[in-house]
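Journal club prep — side note

Before the paper discussion, L.F. wants everyone to see what a predicted structure for a comparable chain looks like in token form. Sequence:
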Amino acid sequence: MRRFLPALAIAALSTTAAWADRPVTAAESEKLVAALKAEGCSGGKMEFDDGKFEVDDARCADGKKYDFDFDGNFKITKKDLDD
């Protein structure tokens, strides 16, 4: 059992690192921009965090700012008014 604990710890740490926040790639950015445009929105700060894409402070056609979450297929999973 003790031989497996170090391997288990390494696997857990590497999985955690994979979910860390990072900037989006150019290809991901293009898809996010297209998804935002379909919602009548643009701009915002884009990143990949906790296994999802996030866009903060996107300005939409109603003149308000929103925070968005997208899944791996660039479908909106959450849209919140940014206060």
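L.F.'s comment for the group: The first strand starts at residue 41 and ends at 42. Keep this in mind when we get to the figures.
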